[in-house]
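2024-03-11 09:14:02 DEBUG pipeline.ingest accepted 1 chain
2024-03-11 09:14:02 DEBUG pipeline.ingest length=194
2024-03-11 09:14:03 DEBUG pipeline.predict start
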Amino acid sequence: MRLARAGLLVNCRLADSQWTYSEGTRATIAIKGGRDRIVLRYRFRSYGQEWESIEQPVPTLWTPCRFGGERPWFICDVRANGVYCGRKVTTLYGGGRLFACRHCYRLGYAVQRVGPLDKAHHNLERLHRKLNAHYERPDLPAPPKPKWMRWKTYRWMAQQIEDGRERLDEAFIVGAQRILASIERVDHRRRSRR
């Protein structure tokens, strides 16, 4: 949508996009826009290889919106594991030589890579944000009801926070039991070696 707002998906014009990584490395990509496709121009280097110039065309598709207007989509025009993708996506990721969709690069969301304890904390933090409150610790009571919120909604969210605390306690107990079992196995091995 940012490219559409910038007029790159309507006019055939060239624009540069730049960003800086946390370690200070700068990156630039040239985007030549058009209604049916955009062309990405950039340089890429694999580890230990020379820089190569890449020009990647990316098809775009426009779908009508419910209340008028159109919405642009990128078509992932990449072959992953020998299979053409062709998905209609909003975001392409630069995880390798070509820009491709999340599925082609097998990218997950951050919350999918964490354990049950972190998921429970994440859920409690999300519920606190909905109540315009800062999540500090799980043992604190539910934050007060925001002025604009209905009591029925607030009671439901307070119950969700209580249920989240119980899931957090259960995840903590399971994690602690695993650690204790691991310690017991190590102690048993040490005793059996003596």
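2024-03-11 09:14:41 DEBUG pipeline.report DSSP finds three helices and eight strands in the chain.
2024-03-11 09:14:41 DEBUG pipeline.predict end
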